[in-house]
Write a structure and sequence with these properties.
By secondary structure, this protein is of the alpha+beta class. The protein folds into 2 domains: 63 residues, no CATH class; 100 residues, no CATH class. Helix content is 23%, strand content 32%. It is built from 5 helices and 10 strands; from the N terminus they run αβββαβββαααββββ. The chain has a 5-stranded mixed sheet with strand order 6-10-9-8-7. Strands 4-3-5 form a 3-stranded antiparallel sheet, with no helix packed on it. A hairpin with a 2-residue loop joins strand 8 and strand 9. The longest helix has 17 residues. It is globular and about 50 Å long. Bound molecules: zinc ion (2 copies). The site of one zinc ion (ZN) has 5 residues, from loops.
């Protein structure tokens, strides 16, 4: 038995997969229910990029090892098209200046579906690559920030997008462009 037995597992397709990820397991004791720990239940994180554990005094949550998620197979990113049609490109929120930034890149409301898919594709890959930053954690959940890159007219532009970590490898978009 070497140390690799603990770090590498053979998956159902015979591929070796490094186990650097954990699934948060909420363990409630007695009558107390902690809404923050509860919302983290079954969420996946890189072991080095997870919420503080124990989260607080008398937190009985544990981190169970899971295989590094694979984009589109174990993990998925979901971005509601309304984040673009009803927010970024809406008149109502034009005051934020975010529409101006997307329009400077040549995008209009007609590109909303392209943007939704581009965000989902880039975000799920970066999440699985552990290229995310932990943001605010509260009873809504653990927020993470992910950089979305665009190449327009030969220039690289990076937008920081905000996501919420959901159970079992899912992340959902909060904002395409964080403040
Ligand atoms: Zn708790
Ligand atoms: Zn806890």
């Amino acid at each position: 038995m070497g140390i690799f037995d603990d770090l590498i597992r053979v998956d159902e397709n015979g591929n070796l997969r490094y186990i650097g990820w954990i699934e948060w397991k909420h363990i409630s004791t007695g009558l107390t229910h902690c809404p923050v720990c509860l919302v983290l239940d079954k969420c996946w994180f890189n072991n080095n990029l997870k919420p503080k554990l124990p989260q607080h005094e008398n937190c009985h949550c544990v981190a169970n090892n899971v295989a590094n998620p694979i984009p589109m197979i174990d993990a998925i990113a979901k971005c509601d098209i309304k984040k673009f049609t009803d927010y970024i490109f809406s008149d109502k929120y034009a005051w934020t200046g975010k529409r101006d930034l997307f329009e400077m890149l040549g995008f209009t409301i007609n590109d909303s579906n392209y943007l939704k898919e581009e965000y989902e594709n880039q975000a799920v890959k970066k999440y699985c690559n552990s290229e995310y930053k932990l943001g605010k954690l509260d009873m809504q959940g653990q927020r993470i920030n992910i950089d979305i890159k665009f190449v327009r007219h030969g220039r690289n532009l990076v937008f920081t997008s905000g996501w919420m970590v959901r159970p079992k490898g899912e992340i959902t978009n909060n904002t395409p462009l964080a403040d």
